[in-house]
Amino acid sequence: MRLTAFYGGLFLLAGVVLLTITNILVNHTTGDVVYSARPADRFQPASPDGRSARSDHLPMDARQLHAELGRLHARDVHQFLVQSGVALAITAVACIALGYVLASRALRPVRTITAQARTISAHNLHKRVKVEGPADELKLLGDTFDELLDRLEQAFDAQRQFIANVSHELRSPLARQRAITEVALGDAEANAATLRAAHERVLVAEVQQERLIDALLALARGQASVQHPRPVDLADITARVLDARRDEASRRGLKISTSLDHAETTGDPRLVERLATNLIDNAIRHNQAGGRVDIRTSTHSGSAHLDVANTGPVVPAAAVERIFQPFRRLDPDRTHSGDGLGLGLSIVQAIANSHGAAITTSVRPEGGLHIRISFTPIADTEPNRASTVTS
């Protein structure tokens, strides 16, 4: 209705302007017309320069005729104006009706999008608008809405899968705790030593739950945007993490090689430290006896880089994207956890996302991975989704 009123008003305004201009032109043009269909002997001849004589020099009957012609001219102009106004009113009504039909037809895709959007919920995100027609702005709007639904469906599916995985991971230690407790309580010959052993096993299961909960909290914090970024030196943070991991690397027979150059960026120091910790832990745990871990920090083209490379089993190129997903491991058996929880690289990617950093993952032909995190100042770069590049 607003579009109809708007276009109808524009048409009326344009019609009024057109009639005004036409009336002025008609009045000016026809006002100078000389009617010569009169007896020549009853009028004074024209002046020597060829122009008609002035009306005040004409005989009396000629002056009366001239006045009558003026009244007829005024009546004709008035009648022309009235008839034009009637024609304008009729045409305006027809144009308003036609404008309403055209506006309804033009806005039909919007109504389709609106009706379809009202029927879509978390349970039927697979539905799409699918606007048909020429590639105009409304079809672009419909296609954009469908792309938004694609992203929402992927996010909801990932969330459902994540919740299912968390439930499975938490159920295992809880079931183990319950079984240990029931066995201990059901043993009629239980003594202090057996009960103590049962409690120790329960404590081990609780430690696993705490690790999982801490990892989930770190993942949630990593997915949030950085509110108060501060200057961070990757070299200092990496050195602190290495000091706490050298003993474990020695027990596994690993050699650590470092090259820590000054590499300053901006971000949350705790999250960046967690990122470095997870990368180094991943390189140590998924390694081989007598292997090595190469760690380097550097600055190139204004970006701070953290590189972690390790030896280990050969990683299929198709599996690189999977290992960055929560609870996904190279081993297709998700329940086989080994030393980790399956959240280490997921947390790394979440923290990189929140810092606008890019992840580049290279598969080493001899085995292992080379992961590079490229930070840029948050003041200059909006947080983007971290990219995972495989080579």
TrEMBL record:
Please list the residue ranges annotated as the HAMP domain: 104-157
Q: Where is the Histidine kinase domain?
A: 165-379
Under the heading CDD domains, the entry gives: HAMP (cd06225), HATPase (cd00075), HisKA (cd00082)
Q: Which GO terms describe its cellular component?
A: plasma membrane
Q: Does the keyword Transcription apply?
A: no
Top-level enzyme category = transferase
Against SMART domains, the record matches this protein to: HAMP, HATPase_c, HisKA
Q: Where in the cell is it found?
A: Cell membrane; Membrane
Database matches in Pfam families: HAMP, HATPase_c, HisKA
What is catalysed by this protein?
ATP + protein L-histidine = ADP + protein N-phospho-L-histidine
- Return the protein name: histidine kinase
Membrane-traversing stretches: 7-26, 80-103
> Which coarse location class applies to the principal site listed for this UniProt protein?
membrane
Alphabetically sorted, this entry's keywords are: Kinase, Membrane, Phosphoprotein, Transferase, Transmembrane, Transmembrane helix, Two-component regulatory system
Task: Work out whether the entry's keyword set contains Chaperone.
Answer: no
Q: How is this protein situated with respect to the membrane? A: Multi-pass membrane protein
Q: What is its EC number?
A: 2.7.13.3
* A GO MF term: phosphorelay sensor kinase activity
Under Gene3D superfamilies, the record lists: 1.10.287.130, 6.10.340.10, Histidine kinase-like ATPase, C-terminal domain
